[in-house]
Amino acid sequence: MTPADLSLTVQHAVRRAVDDGALRVDVPPRVKVEKARPGGVGEYASSVALSLARPAGRPALDVASVLKERLDGAAGILAVDITGPGFLNFTLRPQDGAELLRAVRTAGLAYGQGDALAGEAVRFEPPAEDRATVIVGCLTGLLRGQGADARVEAGGERPYVHPGADETALLGSDAARWRLLRAAPHDRPLDGPPLLVRHERNALFRVQYAHSRTRRLLANGAQLGVLPAYETEVHGTEGEGPLLGLLRDHPAVLLAAARHRAPDRVARHLEAVADALLGFQHTVLPLGDEKPSAAHRSRLALAEATGTVLAGGLSVLGISAPDRI
Were both Cys, which of 122, 144, 200, 280 would link to 239 (CB 3.0–4.6 Å)? Predict the structure, then answer.
């Protein structure tokens, strides 16, 4: 269950409570859910009960109890807890690998997009310099990918405008954009020349190389007669769990990057995904006299999904995902 799915589930619980006569409020156009804070309960939390308490004319704890009754047992939710003055806290059911990979395969490069920010209108002033133009263009795409109405005010919009011509000529578009977007907006851009070095210390190279490795694994697998097919009874290898976790987190990362206007979060997440894939890649296909098995097919499916997430994340940043490096 993604944050967008959880938001809709809570909104539907409010609507059912209104339809049942348990609450007399206007159903909010969307319900905000956020990562639970350190020390909290579960994985996500919502203050919707507090915002509805006054219009309902009831204490927030009462409103939270009404909603909890309608959320207990909902698909994807393992537990609902009420904390503090009326916060709803959610523990989600673990998503099995097969379900996750099907979701990635179905959504393709759009995996992680949703409508959690539907109804929000975000307007940016026309950027005055190259870095701001690149950041605003990226943020516009991120926000639209979460359902927001985002655009630049009169003055022109260039969603994936290249940095300055001199810098692009020196570094190339990918490195020029990465140096601007990987650094937090309040920090200095990264140094450009190191981004041209094909070395593991270069994070941009690792991310693009990891994507190219997924494409090569698929091609090599086809030559061996191994096709991607995730099977839940196969436990895989030690590196599989962390990689699945990173793919599962991808929608939340995109949503947080949009909400906090922080495209650097996407870049950092892609680095983590790439590093996990590069540590996992050697287990994917049979080695030596090893016979192809269900485990190899499941690992190849995971590699394929990882490539999709890397390509989709790079696309959000306006950076290419080469099939070969």
Answer: 280
